[in-house]
Design brief:
The complex is a heterodimer of chains A (296) and B (132).
Chain A (H helix, E strand, L loop, with lengths): L15 H19 L9 H10 L2 H30 L8 H23 L4 H15 L2 H12 L8 H23 L6 H17 L22 H7 L4 H18 L7 H25 L10
Helix pairs in contact in A: 1-3, 1-8, 2-3, 3-4, 3-8, 4-7, 4-10, 5-6, 9-11, 10-11
Chain B lengths: L2 H32 L7 E5 L6 E4 L3 E5 L4 E5 L10 E3 L4 E3 L6 E2 L5 E3 L8 E2 L1 E4 L2 E5 L1
Antiparallel strand pairs in B: 1-11, 2-3, 3-4, 4-9, 5-6, 6-7, 7-8, 10-11
Classes of the chains: A mainly alpha (296), B alpha+beta (132).
Amino acid sequence: MDYERLFQTRPLLPKFGEIALSSLIIALISGIALIPGFQSPSEPFRSVSQIVNSGFFGHFIHSCHSYAGDLFLIAVFFHVLEYLLKKSYLSYHWKAWLWLVGLMSVSLFVVFSGFLTIGSVESLDASSILKNILFAFGSVGKSAANFLLLSSERGSVLTILVHHAGTFTVLTVILVYVHLKRFKPDVYAFYYAFILISLLAVAIPAKLGIMPGANAEVVKGPWYFRGLQEMLSWMPVRIAGAALPGFVILIFALLPVTQKKHLILLRALFFVFSFYLAETLIATFLRGEGWQLTGF
Amino acid sequence: MNGKEYKQSRRSALKIITGFIIGLFVYLTGRFTERFLPERRKLSIPVSGIRRGINVTDAIFILKTENAVKVLSRTCPHLGCKLAYSPQKRIIRCPCHGSRFEPNGKYLSGPAKKDLKSFDYQINSDQLQIEI
């Protein structure tokens, strides 16, 4: 099948890469506007609640930031899918391709680290899960966990907040620039993303999650990690949390160097993605109280 | 060695040195952050406020039976999620991955595969003192 045609006819829809860049810029601007409202990293949920309850502008900016992050990830996903199907990796030098694989991973982390700064039950549990997955890598993982989440030991999100606003954002911006050699998006794509995000922010305020301290019966992570959460409920941590993500990154990294067998790697990626999507759907729709299966 | 070869070998040497410096920096940063890990937390809970059955606090469960008190961690031994107590089912459950425990902390099912951690405590002038 000629997959390229899937992306050739898209009336009114800008290029996914341009939507991703526009969303990133909207997330950066709204993030800067949120900084003064984030009063106390030791009480993050209270800080975010205060921003949201401060009036229309506070709630609008918070929702814009949240939806811009989500749209950024969705657009990056379709952008990657489009260029994988077009087999663009064959024209890349493997070193240049590695930068793109790095950008993809950092993109996920810049959004996820934002989720960790909210301080809701979901966010606090996600921090603990990340920390314990990193602990599975021995002393190197422990150092990485301390580096990313040290202040969480004291109930503060200060460390991850600095990484979200600083480390990961700067890395994303640098890698985007290395990839595009520009940082200005297509104007049409920018307005497309801005109107979509604004409409969503006005119509459906972004959820804050469960208040910390509550006796939560079921805790679900962000949509892009639900599949991982489901896998962790029945697979060993080292496989679900380390080997499988490492395997996916390895497949991506190997695409340009396996010129003749790249279709096998693409099929493997498609299989892993289908499996992950199924796990995400199970976690989202079939898991109820105490993470038990419901609806049967 | 001609000029081109010299440049290439110098570049390789610089790459190795840069890799070593980055590795050393990451290692030292890891060791540096360990110094800032907090010490164990001390909790103090009024004994008179503890009722029979499971008492849920932010960090621990306190199980009071007719003649004993048991203090259990509220952190799941699997991946550290905060556990919830279901009074209807008289069971402690992990809301993230579904591990289940008896009210006395004994493992029942799920990915945790371990009992809940229990803490020693002291009672001093109507205060239950626990170090977690």
